Amino acid sequence: MTLHRRSRPRWALVLALLAACEARTPPAPPAASGAPALASAAAAPQAASAAAATTAAPPPEPLPPEPPIALASGGARAVRGDAGLVTSVEENATRVGADVLRRGGNAIDAAVAVAFALAVTHPSAGNIGGGGFMMVRLANGETQAVDFREAAPASVTTESNMAMVRAGAFGYASAGVPGSVAGLALAHERFGTRPLAELLAPAIALARKGHRLGARQALTLRWAWPRLRTDRAASAIWGRGKAPLAQGELVRQLDLARTLETLAAEGPRAFYEGAIARKIAAAMRERGGHISEADLRAYQARWRAPLRFSYRGFTVDTMPPPSMGGVALAEIMLTLERLKAHEAPVDSGLSLHLFVEAAKRAYADRRKVSADPDFVGPEPAQLLAKLLDGGYLMGRAPAVDPERATPAGDIAAPAGALAPESPQTTHFSVIDAQGNAVSCTTTQSASFGARIVIPGTGILLGNAMGAFSETGINAVAPGKRMASSMTPTIVSRDDKVALLLGSPGGDTIPNTVAQVLRNLVDHGMTIDEAVRHGRIHHQWLPDRVRVERLTPPPQAALDDLARRGHAVVLDPMPIGDANNILVDAAGVAWGYADTREGGTAEGVSVPAKLEPAAQADAPQATEQVETPRK
Q1: pLDDT grade, residue 418 (50/70/90)?
Q2: Is a pLDDT exceeding 70 seen at residue 294?
Q3: Where are the domains of the chain?
């Protein structure tokens, strides 16, 4: 086993996303991910109007490169995993997942254990009181998406929800019905191999015995402390008197340990129907919240068909609505492929300009189609099929000018205020020796969510209700999920996993995933180089290019962006935290934990001295390699 310690902060195809299946009834698996599954209905010749027939024929669809692109293996700072690999933002959680793989669990088992551990050790985003999205790909090529985004309680109205937002979007009224326990249980029930109680045991131990507060966790705690300290249950966990705990101090969560023990003994429905549900509902009644026992009973995680597209010979499976992130990622990458942006040198002004122009259009489009598919008619899915059609992308107005920036207002008219999405989320990736893989992003929405803990449970609730819009397809409705930028993504080729991608970062998530994907596929970087590389961000509005001050592109590229008409802003805040994995042609996994937030990647090795037939039953050898903290 190798261990990498990170330093401190730094989409013709077809659309497969039409209806989501009922919880616990997975959809028919998509076609093998080595070939594109879908072709846009909007591109069907029989559907073309007479007017369209008079227009110029759309450009031909790009052909896969020949020879196929070879991904770069290795990496000076990358972690190798011959029999599996885990990478996450927090070292205890990473270790928990790697240990599950060593004991014979598969990637889904390990991912469930990691997620529950993060609820203990990385509470700013890891959770059982919030939600998330998970992409699962089995070694046989079956790929599924699990939607466990939070849902609106039945009593919430647009008026009450907007009043909550205006009041700061924190507290009991900001919490949606949590989805994480249901989502993790759904994935485990379908694909897991180890008992759920076994996978919960490490999280229980971390909560009961305690763990030392990490550097990133201490930093986010300090940011959230002014509100956390006003909640008695929260301040009792993370405070000493009037001050928050500091890095290295012991955090014990006995109430959370008991809650997790109840889940281990009684199963996930204890959270939604048992004593835990009663405690949540009682606290809500007493403190002005909306979640009722009926809301909790009604919640179900959903299987969704992944949003699938091809990019330069690779098949990309990403999260469909209610994710806005997968939509944006697909449009960005499909546009860049047709613009042949990969021919521009890395970090050149032209390369960055084409990326920004693709991103601006994708971000303007994504809010038109990204909402809970259980609550909208067929129009958003039909529009999405159009948006991801190559003819539309190359024929839309205004076209991408390779020399000049298109003003954001020329792309689309602003439709009211666009609330920024909180960047405090977390992403982890897992692959096992057989090739099963999980890419998962979870969130409390804001850092530490609603910043309240349900008394007697240790459950820190998220504040995702603020992600609903006042009007439009993302407006609140009872039981509806709110849109999100989370973009867990799995890339494959020839029926084999190639990349596990994802990131936190709110609105920046799709751009982060797109840039890491470009670095790996277009620019031949190793996984550590691709993740460490500097990032930029443009989300249509505001009309500016955000650049990481600590890892900027060359000054000549920034000057070139300005010459083309872009407003460039250097920002001290990092963009994203890409805990990602690459699998090379030999089947070896290479992982890296992004240095922007601090965490670990840990690989599992097969003992070298045993014959292959004996390796499966042998204990896993371990080897640890550390990189010094800065």
Answers
A1: low
A2: yes
A3: 111-136+146-303+450-467
Is the confidence at residue 196, as pLDDT, over 80? yes
Amino acid letter at 484? Answer: S
| Helix/strand number for the chain, H first, E second | 21, 24
Q: What is the mean predicted confidence (pLDDT) over 104-120?
A: 98
Whether residue 623 has pLDDT greater than 90? no
Mean pLDDT value across the chain: 89
Distance CA 486, CA 537 (A): 16
DSSP character string of 554-566: PHHHHHHHHHTT-
Is residue 576 within 8 A of residue 512, CB to CB? The reply is yes
What is the phi/psi pair of residue 364, to 5°?
A: -70, -35
d(CA 422, CA 125): 11
Q: Which two tokens stand for residue 460?
A: 């820190």
Return the DSSP state at 151. Answer: B
Cis ω for the linkage preceding 398 (within 30 of 0): yes
Structure tokens at 573: 């805040």
> Would strands 536-537 and 496-501 be described as parallel, antiparallel, or unpaired?
unpaired
Q: Is residue 404 within a helix (H) or strand (E), and if so which, with residue range?
A: none
d(CA 536, CA 513): 12
Sole residue written with tokens 């290295």: 248
Q: Does an H or E element contain 166, and which?
A: helix 158-166
CA distance 482 to 63: 37
Give a three-class secondary structure readout of 202-216: HHHHHHHHCEECCHH
Paired with 499 in beta bridges are 491, 582
Strand order of the β-sheet with 545-548 is 536-537, 545-548, 568-571
Cβ atoms of 593 and 599 within 8 Å: the answer is yes
Q: 583, 624, 597: which is closest to 430 by C-alpha? A: 583
C-alpha to C-alpha distance for 393 and 415, rounded to whole angstroms: 22
Residue 482: which of 440, 428, 445, 438 has the closest Cα? Answer: 445
**Cα dihedral across residues 173, 297, 263, 435: positive or negative:** negative
Show which residues are catalytic: 425
Average pLDDT over residues 303-317: 98
Kindly state the greatest CA–CA separation across the chain.
74
Residue 350 sits at φ, ψ, to 5 deg, of -65, -45
Asked if pLDDT for residue 17 goes beyond 70, the answer is no
